[in-house]
Write a structure and sequence with these properties.
By secondary structure, the protein is mostly helical. The protein has 14 helices and no strands. Helices cover 67% and strands 0% of the residues. InterPro entries: Nro1/ETT1 (IPR024318), TPR-like_helical_dom_sf (IPR011990).
Length: 378
């Protein structure tokens, strides 16, 4: 897969191509089978499609299978609306194309067994149709301007996904599409666009995940720092936003993983066998940097879990467990290491029990599952 890849999460170290994996995909060709829980004016088909998309995005985090059904419904309805649109009437409004293009993009991210690129191409085409339609408007009111800005943001997300396929480990250059996407996002977000905090956090996550694809710290930080600023902006308005806190934790965990990789490379280059055999008494510079980033990551994850309470997600427990394991591998005291292992095991079990209690489709990262099995065999 060339397009947008999933964040490498330390132990699992996976660079998968999709946002989430859905094991069983509902076959939904009729959007009328989907219940819309939003208020929509009767007969407003474009509004109904937008409501389907909104519901899908709300479900994506905890119920990807349910979100997939809604996204298929959105695309089906949008396609039907376009095909049935009277030829002698002006094209559908920009809002329609924003819904259609966004649904194609999100569907591509969630669909398991299909290539992402065709979805991206189709999404970009529909979003561009929306921007072209906006330019045709003789009167551009506040609502249409807001829709145009949201369309540009959606287009930037598509560009980031397409740029992911152009990231080259050999030279680590940032593709022009990714740079253009960040410039577009800056312009839109510094304007009057009205985005929900959910949309802002998701946007930060997309940018941060893209940064993880690069090998150099400079390239990573360009995207990580951008995402952190947006997440802090969210927390300024909503201090209890658990998703923003978790994403900030993931950013620090990603930074820690970078320094851990650097420490491993330094260790491989060290040819002083006698030094290696000596009991380690202090951390290297790279290990210390990793330790500090892990400490910050844990702080954010713990805050997210505290504020979430009974609504905590399995993934946050898993992320905290990973941070604890990474910390355990750095501490110099064996007793402290064992204590951190025990805490990690508790968080792993909390992740599994939370998923079971809430009937959520969730699989532990392979590295955490393997660690738990090895621990329980001792």
């Amino acid at each position: 897969m060339g397009a947008e890849k999933k964040r490498p999460r330390g132990l699992a170290a996976q660079k998968a191509a999709k946002k989430a994996k859905v094991d069983e995909e509902p076959n939904t060709n009729n959007a009328q089978t989907v219940v819309i829980d939003k208020e929509v004016e009767e007969g407003d088909e474009i509004g109904e499609a937008a409501a389907l998309l909104e519901s899908a995005i709300e479900k994506a985090e905890k119920d990807p299978a349910g979100a997939l059904q809604l996204l298929r419904g959105t695309v089906h309805e949008s396609d039907r609306i376009l095909r049935n649109w009277p030829e002698n009437e002006t094209r559908p409004p920009p809002k329609f194309y924003l819904t259609y293009g966004s649904a194609l993009y999100e569907l591509g991210r969630l669909t398991e067994d299909e290539e992402f690129e065709p979805f991206l191409e189709a999404a970009e085409e529909r979003l561009q149709d929306g921007l072209d339609r906006f330019e045709e408007l003789t009167e551009k009111d506040e609502q249409s301007v807001d829709t145009a800005d949201k369309t540009r943001i959606a287009m930037a997300k598509v560009w980031i996904a397409k740029a992911s396929g152009a990231v080259n480990d050999a030279n680590d250059d940032i593709p022009e599409l990714a740079t253009r996407a960040l410039d577009t996002l800056d312009k839109a977000l510094n304007g009057s666009v009205k985005l929900t905090t959910t949309s802002m956090v998701e946007l930060a996550s997309i940018v941060q995940n893209h940064g993880d694809l690069y090998g150099s710290l400079e390239s990573q930080n360009k995207f990580r720092d951008w995402a952190e600023k947006l997440l802090q902006r969210v927390l300024k308005d909503e201090p209890d936003n658990t998703r923003a806190l978790s994403e900030l934790g993931l950013g620090k965990l990603s930074l820690a993983n970078y320094w851990l990789e650097q420490a491993d490379e330094q260790g491989e280059d060290d040819e002083d066998e006698e030094k290696e055999e000596q009991e380690k008494k202090e951390l290297s510079k790279e290990e210390q940097n990793a330790f500090e980033a892990i400490t910050e990551a844990k702080k954010y994850f713990e805050q997210a879990l505290t504020k979430a309470g009974d609504n905590a997600t399995p993934q946050t427990f898993a992320d905290l467990a990973e941070a604890c394991l990474n910390e355990a591998n750095l501490v110099l005291s064996e007793d402290e290491q064992n204590k951190l292992y025990q805490v990690a095991v508790k968080h792993i079990k909390d992740a599994k029990s939370t998923a079971e209690k809430n009937s959520l489709q969730y699989n532990l990262p392979d590295g955490l599952q393997s660690f738990l099995e090895e621990w329980e065999e001792q």
